[in-house]
Design a protein that fits this description.
The protein has one helix spanning 4-16, and strands spanning 36-40, 48-52, 85-90, 93-97. The protein is of the alpha+beta class. It has one domain (20-106): Lipase, subunit A (Ribbon), CATH 2.10.80.10. The radius of gyration is 19 Å and the shape is globular.
């Protein structure tokens, strides 16, 4: 009986608490916390998950939209953090880099 009471109490609190995304699954950016976006899962294409925005050196997609994006994202990476830009570094490759350190800046 002693072990059942904490279980019932936790179930009651979960069912009457405010909703939250516990698993990280999402449909829209607004369901994710700050510094995150709702991107397609790399392993399960039908699942969208809250992912962190690209930090310096992270892989990115040059055509990704800013956050919040009100549609459904079609790529598995989030846009770069606001102080970075998605710079193409080779065929089919792009990284989040400071726009001031990009080679095109000095041309």
């Amino acid at each position: 009986m002693r072990s059942i009471f904490p279980l019932l109490l936790s179930l009651f609190l979960v069912s009457h608490g405010s909703s939250a995304v516990i698993t990280g699954a999402c449909d829209r950016d607004s369901q994710c916390g700050g510094g995150m976006c709702c991107a397609v899962s790399l392993w399960i294409p039908t699942l969208r998950m809250c992912m962190p925005m690209g930090r310096e050196g992270a892989e990115c997609h040059p055509l990704s939209h800013k956050v919040p994006f009100f549609g459904k994202r079609l790529h598995h990476t989030c846009p770069c953090l606001p102080n970075l830009s998605c710079t193409v570094i080779g065929p089919g490759r792009a990284k989040c880099l400071s726009p001031y350190e990009s080679p095109e800046y000095f041309l």
